[in-house]
């Protein structure tokens, strides 16, 4: 699948997240409990839908923030804190299909940056579209912040 990559300027987007320092090996078993924690907090605050799930990778360690784009105020409790997807110039693509194939979308963006001489600052994130039982209807936006 070809992934068209664009370079755009983005505004900061408020998020509600749980932050963690992990390893790439541990992350696949960690992200869902963190996201469940965020959604439990949101439901307690009266939000049951409408917030896109996100995963922000702050570096290669990875230090991560797992949560949602917060589209309205909500009291945050426990380990759930307010944060932001950062503003700035980014390179991004949209992947349609199974999450198992997200690596190709990430490679498309990093390869594009290399070919265009664009430096990345180490911050990237994934924004997930609404859940759908048909993997062909699933979409994920892959974004890398440029230096």
Name the helicity range.
10-25%
Strand order of the largest sheet: 1-6-8-7-3-4-2-5
**Average of the residue pLDDT scores:** 95
Q: Based on Cα principal axes, name the global outline.
A: globular
**What is the CATH class designation?**
Alpha Beta
Describe the structure.
It is a single chain. This protein is of the alpha+beta class and 147 residues long. The protein has one domain (6-146): Regulatory factor, effector binding domain (Multidrug-efflux Transporter 1 Regulator Bmrr, Chain A, Alpha-Beta Barrel), CATH 3.20.80. It is built from two helices and eight strands. The chain has helices spanning 27-44, 102-116; strands at residues 6-10, 13-21, 53-57, 63-69, 81-85, 88-96, 120-128, 139-146. It has an eight-stranded antiparallel sheet with strand order 1-6-8-7-3-4-2-5, covered by helices on one side. It is globular.
Topology readout:
Elements: E1 6-10, E2 13-21, H1 27-44, E3 53-57, E4 63-69, E5 81-85, E6 88-96, H2 102-116, E7 120-128, E8 139-146
Pfam families: GyrI-like
Organism: Kutzneria buriramensis
Domain AraC effector-binding: 3-147
Question: What's the quick description here?
Answer:
The protein has 147 residues and is α+β, with helices and mostly antiparallel strands.
Task: Please describe the structure with a list of short key phrases separated by commas or semicolons.
Multidrug-efflux Transporter 1 Regulator Bmrr, Chain A; alpha+beta; 8 strands; Effector-binding domain-containing protein; 147 residues; 39% strand; 2 helices; Reg_factor_effector_dom_sf; AraC_E-bd; GyrI-like; 8-stranded antiparallel sheet
């Amino acid at each position: 699948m070809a992934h068209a990559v664009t370079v755009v300027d983005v505004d900061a987007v408020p998020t509600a997240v749980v932050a963690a320092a992990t390893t790439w090996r541990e992350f696949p078993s960690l992200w869902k409990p963190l996201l469940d924690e965020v959604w439990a907090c949101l439901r307690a605050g009266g939000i049951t839908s409408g917030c896109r799930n996100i995963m922000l990778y702050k570096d290669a360690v990875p230090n991560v923030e797992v949560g949602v784009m917060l589209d309205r105020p909500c009291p945050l409790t426990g380990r759930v804190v307010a944060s932001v997807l950062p503003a700035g110039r980014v390179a991004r693509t949209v992947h349609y299909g199974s999450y198992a194939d997200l690596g190709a979308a990430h490679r498309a963006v990093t390869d594009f940056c290399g070919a265009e001489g664009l430096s990345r600052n180490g911050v990237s994130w994934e924004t997930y579209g609404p859940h759908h039982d048909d993997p062909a209807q699933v979409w994920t936006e892959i974004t890398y912040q440029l230096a």
